[in-house]
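Researcher: Last one for today. Full complex below.
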Amino acid sequence: MRLTCPICGPRDRREFYYQGDAVMLDRPGADAPPQVWADWLHLRDNPAGRTRDLWYHEAGCTAWLAVERDTVTHEVFSVELVESADAD
Amino acid sequence: MRMEDGCVVELTALMPCNGILPITIGETTLSEVDPGRITALMPFRGQHAALTEALQAAHGLGFPEPGQTTVAEGASCVWTARDQAFLMGPAPDDSLAPHAAVTDQSDAWSVVLLAGLDAEDVLARLVPIDLRPAAFPEGAAARTLCQHMSVTICRRAEGLQIMAFRSMARTLAHEISDAMASVAGRRAAG
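Model: Here's the assembly. Have a good evening.
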């Protein structure tokens, strides 16, 4: 598997650390009820198909990346810097 | 040297690969490089252009783009990570400090040079990126892996320069010399 890092170009999977679902970027508001926070923190879908995950280019430029890919076909649709996807 | 009641030993500075390198196998040589001073430059937000200007004025080179090295007489600036590059050679001029976090890294790195007939073939066994001259020409730099170690590799006129943490010097030399032996053995076998 290869990911095309927006900074480094196409790189081998060995260089990346997998973090998990990119839903982590959609943090609830500070006044959201506890159930919303709990769901955001703990509940994850496990889709067969298209997913959006966070990856860390640990052995490269050290950027956090949001990767859209298909868990069935292994096709990678897009790789973007978290910085440009998330204003936080 | 005697001081007060005790004895202070005269310490001798050693290079990280002292006693380990150079190694030549076949027509490929792994040797240690004395990089001079190594200084990490991490530009403050919005200060890239100002840092490049200060670098040009003080050291005759700019801050490198990702995957690049800038070179001047006796100095180079190697891209090492996102918004980070290493100035190698001279002591950093004071004029850089307003534009970037400037930290001395001189003793933290072992710097080696792999040169000769099989340099690319040797690293192809250890490094997951294409280092052949067409894909990785002089002036290119990459942060990647050498087996399980994080390394920064750049192509100099003399060969491929590899930087790893100083604590990994022996592992680095071991991994690369093992691969050198394999490639030379394969070549000898025809």
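Chain B has one domain: 20-189. The two ends of chain B are 58 Å apart (CA to CA).
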